[in-house]
Amino acid sequence: MDHKNGSVVTEFILSGFSGQWELQILFFVIFSLIYGATVVGNTLVILTVTLSSTLHSPMYFLLGNLSFLDMCLSTATTPKMITDLLTEHKTISVCGCMAQTFFMHFFGGAEMTLLIVMAFDRYTAICKPLHYRTIMSQRLLSGFVILSWTIGFIHTMSQMVLIVNLPFCGYNVVDSIFCDLPLVIRLACVEAHTLELFVIADSGLLSFVSFIVLLISYTVILVTVQQRSSAGISKALSTLSAHIIVVTLFFGPCIFIYVWPFSSFASDKTLAIFYTVITPLLNPIIYTLRNQKMQGVMRKLLFQHIRGTWIT
Hints:
This protein is mainly α. The chain has 10 helices and 3 strands.
């Protein structure tokens, strides 16, 4: 792209949902309901874990942090996407685009790390039950959470420092519902092949390696349980199935998008919606519907709140 022949770009056009007005209204209603349910569902999980003394254990502490990250990840992209569905000119400033990219990779990188921590927690609980409380101390848990946020920050900053000063001129249409690194780099006025490879090595490799590590962790847990007791394999599988579902739903789209980030696929928009909009809603549903203890505590807290309101 010739830098001299194009004017300096101050905003990008998001063309991901350009189409019939009726269809955009339908998407507005659907995604508004999904985002509302995401905020309510994850907030409910956080409040339940915080307010109930019976859930002050490592697993639920990590689950509360996962819900917070899910809510932040969805908030980084979904509100802007929803409001764009009601506007004819779907634009975002260059600074807004950079901020959206920063927070999406920040929360996404932190969540990837936290999912690995949750796998370690399940390994310790299932394979080393007698030492579980000693190993998974509050100090270690706090360290793990700080580490996940730190890795998320390093992950996003390592890429943002390279793209924040890229020159943009002329063509400014982003063929997606939000800004993301591969799409933004493609619009730069300079040759960015090296930066493209770095994105693959950073985001793509992080997603792929994290996914493989998690699958190996769950396999080790299941093999260990099977060697100790064949009867315990079904219980372990039931416990881990929710984790496996969450991991697959989160990492599958990320790997597909970031391992081949500079090839255009018609399914990219759908996958982007899936891991930024759908998965943050599915996480609390999967964990709460499959966890009788969590359901019982939620009902108890709800009953106490209703009774307290009625007495007042």
